[in-house]
Every structure is written in structure tokens, then in C-alpha cells.
Amino acid sequence: MKATDKKQVVLEILAEYRYTPPKVERGYANQTLYVNVSDNTIAAKPVDEKMKHTFVGGRGFGLWLLWNAVRGTTKWNDPDNEVILSSGPIGGTTVYPGSGKSIAVSLSPLTGTVMDSNVGGHFGPLLKFSGWDAIEVQGKADREVIVFVDGNKGVVQIIAAPELADDSYALPEQLLDLFAETDEERIGISSVSTGPGAQHTLMGCLNVSFYDPRRKFVRLKQAGRGGIGTVFRHKKIKALVVKYIGVKGDSNGPASWAELTEVGKRMHREIYEQDPIMNDMRGNGTPYLVSIMNEFDLLPVHNFRYGSHPEASNLYHTEFRKHYSLGIPDGCWYGCTLACSKCVERFQLRTGPYKGQWVHVDGPEYETIAGVGSNCGIFDPYAVLEINFYCDTYGIDTISFGTAMAFCMECYETGILNKERTNGLELRFGNAEAMLEALHQMGRGEGFGTVVGQGVRRMKQFFAEKYGADPAFLQDIGMECKGLEYSEYVSKESVAQQGGYGLANKGPQHDEAWLIFMDAVTKQIPTFEDKAEALHYFPMFRTWFSLNGLCKLPWNDVEPADNKRKYPPRIAARVPEHVHNYIELFTAVTGREDIKEPEDLVLMSERVYNFQRIFNLKMGFGTREHDAIPYRSMGPVTIEEYESRAERYDQQLREIGFDPEAKSTKEKLAALRRHREQRYESLIDAVYKRRGWNSQGIPTLETVKRLGIDYPDVVALLKEHLQ
Amino acid sequence: MKVLVFNPQLCDGCRICEETCSQTWFKETNAEKSAIRISPLEDQPGRYQATVCNQCGECIDICPTLALTRDRHGIVRVNKKRCTGCLSCVGFCPILAMYIPPDYVVPFKCVACGECVKACPTGALAIEDLPKAPLTETEKRMKVVAL
């Protein structure tokens, strides 16, 4: 639809709610927006001091709202399930880099339990400035609807979606045409949408938009994990749209603008000076990680079998950088000078519905390159860009897609799958054409692509039942835990990272803990107690970002010049001066004076983290058995894998008193496996203890009491399980 | 393009320029609200340096909202309506000549108005017409888009 056609579109308003937008004070609008698309209810819910104190915002608010909306028996596709987006008190701050995140929360189709996924773009901040700390959408519409929030006029509407594009490439542009009254207003609009792939799979993502005034088109960031896009589509939500014109430095109502500017200026200057000589995120974005991971044998290759590949250099940042348009602000929210949100402005597609067209591609991020690239044996940057484009356009999570495809490819190469079973797709490692076809099938809702779209956990069951494949082998190589596909790091040589993945509340995503270097390379956490401490501190500290609407990257993807000289390695890894910045930032925004030390941040997170663990318990998960991980993430599953790094593994066997001489690879493989599995269990014991959980991984009554989350229903649930 | 230039040979550190600037633009005498800042040279007693915008235009490329543009005299100006107060330009100014006063949400800089030149008792300041700075990435792009 062109802007000129707009006048011809008559919108059918199904429900309307008028309100006086409150002024945001100290990071909060102090109310959340409830929308039910079944009966077209729109209502405001107050946010009180206890809710702010306990759950802070962002993921915390999402969990609390969802907890009160669903029962233990609620399924992802029940109308009672919700999609919630919330930024957090710091979210929307413009002076500190990385302060524009939104966190999506819902019951996941992949895991069956609660999911959180963070995303950039302008939605959360503009929603807050429109007067809402969160939006909570419940119900299931009987036809496609748009929820529109106009934060300047103080109107929320549920609108019957007019004829608009079905995919997330064209749709967000059309939404701007529809809701911007002038070209200048485009910058003040952000949408949440997804595409047809979200409908035909369980791994749908949400695309959150922001308008790029130089490139003059809409950019997208993804809340990728856990299939929240699938829930969105199931509810027949075409889009959530927020419009707020007039963002200013003090729109977030900071308690102290002077303190805020001090910490913001300091951080911008540090990035100006340090980023070019450190990771050059401003020039490369997250793809700078590919070469590092490949060099340290951590880049997933061929379904996590290996950690490096001779052709991986084809996927290094240097190969993507030449396609980026640089010298333009690339933050996904104002003031993010780390600017990792790169864009390939002109790319001609070879396949699919946009075949032959020149399009722009956001990203690719490291996870996408590793997931749909090296892990699937694809070392062609153009194939990665094309897959990236169609995953976003169809609304599919690149991580789950990459990991699920890699699983299928290994199944194909080991004979579990064949051309007949895949309806003609030759899913060998490296076959980008077949992979793209599977992706297009997801978009169309047909063929083997829709089987892949069910995710690894369901495919394991399906291949065992239907094709008689060995369930134990499928369990070993199927890289999922709790039903969520692994994100893209090889954790074999770091037991702490195995725990980082296996214990992550939502499933194996690295945003809880990334401990590989600290554990396996620099060996800073040798004992189980050390590792447990790291698996307490880092997941809690990282949770804090998602409570506040912050991005993690400016924490440790750039460091003060003297960080490593000033502190011993274990402390330097925490980047103490940046932790201090966050305390200053939080205090300057909220005016709270009780947050003074790093431990205070950890305590804020601990409440929410434990609450999420208990939420898993409510949904029928959240115990030790659900923290079990596939052996592929712990060590070599196959003889071929063992022999590819035989020297390393032989040496490790010697260290545990097992003489590898004159032993067959099979025997060595078994011995190594016994050791590594036992080590993982010991790690779990140590972490549960450190976190104040019992041996089954359930928070004790003392723990919830200490954290102040001993609500009657929480205590009742725990009592039931602790008996 | 018009640029305020400073002659260290003639400056005696009286700071009348700072007072004049803050009076002109903020109606108060406050060095923190001056777009020119005079500081002593530590290794040369009795000599001073000035930090003031040289209109290089690098900040134009850092601004996410196109709030920084060059006027027809080549002077980089802040559009207060477009500015979201992110202070990227403050942190990324190569010579730290973009400022944010503690009670103000939009940064400010020297626009070569010349008031300080008139006030300087020693003739250490002048507005000069210098050759144009090269086009920034933004200027190149917006020109292309405009065509």
C-alpha cells in the first residue's frame, strides 16, 4: 500500500479506550495496558510500589502479569495465554548506550512453559512514553486485528486489520503508511509483527521495528526465542503498533538528569575511544565473534559436532562488513553508540517470493551466522544473508531454525532421514538450496519444512516413532533442552557453560551465562564451588538487564582501557566500572537510594530469577530432570567426533587416571562420557546449593522468604513439591 | 565556512569570552554554559588553550535523528525539536566541544555568532571564512536521496 492509498482505507474500529497519558516519572508510567482480543476489552492496570520493588520491570513485569493470567494447566494455544511486552525503568533512556530493549514474555509452544526473549527496536520505550509500562494481550481474535496505541492522543484501539501484507518485510512499512500522518511522524512509530512462518511452525519470532531516517526504511529486530511469534499469530494479532511523537532526553522522567548525563557522557566517550581498538562493534556488529569462536574451537559446525572449520573464514565479519553501509548511526534505540545493528542495504534474492528483488537485510548477527551458517555446513555469506532475510520475513527464529536444520542434516547423513522422508529435500550439510526450500515451505505451510518447524524435541519423538530411529542417539545429538533449541556456542570443553545452558530458566540460551573463556580458556573457576559462584553471579547479573530494558552488549563488549590491568581476571570479567555505571544509571533514573553495591543488583534479579524457576514448576517443569542436557553439548557423541580431537580427549582421560593406550575409541568414548556426565551432575549439585534450591532444583521456602516472593500461591506450590 | 578561531599568542586567560557566550545564549554568567572553554596550558605557564567547535561536522554522522545539520554558512547547528538528548554527539566530538549543561536536555555548541570576538579585549578571537569541510556521510547520502 502506498501513502497515497491511505485515504482509501477505512479502518473498522472494534474497540476504543481513551485515557490521559500519565507523565513518566522516574522510569515508570505506573500502569500497564491490558487488551483482550476475544471480547475486545481494553483496560488499565495500576503498577504499585511492591510490584516495582519485587519485579522491577521488563521480564519481571511480564512474568508477574502472566503468572496471574494462567493456570498450571494452561497451554500455549489456550486463549488465556498472553503475549506481554515491557521495557523496564531504564528502558527509553536516551543517554546511555543500549537502553531501548523490550522483553517479550509468553507461554512457549516449544517448551510448554514460560519464555522470555529480549528485543531492540523502539516499541517498549514508545509504549512507556505513551503511558504504559507493559502491554498484555490475552484472548484469541476471530479475525485478524491490529492493536494501536496513540500515546499523544491517549487512545488505544483494536482495529480489524485491513488488507495488508502477510510478511514482516512489507507489513511494517505499510503500517507506517497507515498510521503516520506526515513523513516526520514515521520516526515516532514502532510495530510488532511476524510472518506466515510463525503460523506454520512453533518457532515464530516477533519483529519489532524502528524507522531509520537516513536509509528511509523500517528496520527490524527480533524477539526470536521460544516461539512467541507463533502465539502472536495464533491469537490472530496482525500487529501491535505504538505511536508517540516527541521523545526527549527527559521523556523517561529521570530522578536526576545531571547524574544521568554524567554517566551517559562518560560511556559514550569510552566507546569512542575504546571500541575501535577492542571489538569494533561499530564497524562489525556481532559478527566479529565468528573468527574468535572459530579460533577457539567454539563455533558450532555440523550440528555442534565440531568447533571450527577450514572454510569458516568465509563467514568472518570481513565478508559481511563490505556489504554494510557504514558511517551511519546503527543503534536500535537512540543513543546506542555501540551501534551493532548493521544493515546490508542492497541485496538481490535468488529464491522465494521476493526472488530477483533488491531488498535490505538487517543483520546478520553472530548467532544467525553460526546457526544457519557453520552449524549447517553453509560457508557462503550470500546464502546466510538470504536465509536471514527469509527467516525475518517469515517470522522464524534464526537460532531455532539453524539448530533444527543442523539436527535434520545429521539425521539425513546418518540415514535416519532420506529423500523420501524429506519429500525430496537433500538435507546434506552445506546444501543451502535445500535449506532455503525447507524455509520457504515453512512460509507456505507445506512439506518437510513444517516438520522442521516443530523443533528438535518433537522431531526426535517423531523420527523415533515413525522411522524407528534410536531414541538414545537422537537424544544425544538433538541440541535442545527444555524443548528450546541451543544457541550457537560449543560448550563441550566448559562444564560451567554446560550448566549455563542446562540451567537457563527458558532453555539453552547464552543470555544467562557465557562462561566458556573464563572456565575453559583462562581457567579462572577451577572448582565446582567456583563454577557454582559464577553460575550464581552471572545469570543473576545478566537477568538484571532484562528487568530494566537494557542491552547486555555495552556491559562487556567494550571495556574501560585499564579494566584488565586494574583488576585480577576473575573480577575483570565482571567489568566493575560498568557495574558501577549501572548502579549510577539505575539510581539516576529511579531515584532509589537502596541500590549501592553490585550485590544489590544481584538481589533484585534473584527475586525474579527464582520466581521464573517457580513459574516453570507451576507449569509442570522446573525440576532437575528438566535441566538434563543432550550429550552432544557435553562431549563427543560419535567415534568420528572423538577422533577429530583425539589428542585433547586422550590427554583428559590421562588426567582422570584412565590410560588411553591400547584402548579402542569406543572404550575411550565411554570412559570420557562417564566422567563428563558425572561432572555435570556434580556441577548441578553445587549450583543448586549456591542458589538456595534443594537437590531437585526447587527453591526452598527459606529462599523465597529471604527474597520476599513468598506469596501464598508460591508457598502452596512449593509445599506441594517440597514434600 | 565561518569558524571561530583562537590565537593562543594573544589570550591572557581573562575568560570574558566564556561570560559573554553564556550571557548571550543562556542569559547568565556560567562557564558551564559557554560554548568556548578556556583552560591553562599546564606545560606553558601563562598560556591558554581554547576548546571550541571547529565545525568539522563529524557529529552530523553520529546523530540518530538528523538533528545536526550544516547551515548555508557551513555552521553545524542543533535542531532542538529533533534532538532526543542522547548525547552521542557530546561523547563523540573529537575535540569535546559539544556541551550539555546539567539543567538542559539539548546539547549546545559554538555557532560562530561572533559575540565573544567583539568582547575579547586582546583580539585573541576572530571569525574566519575557512574552506568548506568535506561532506559527511550523512550529507552525501541525503543529497543523493534528495536527487
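The first helix of chain A runs from residue 49 to 55.
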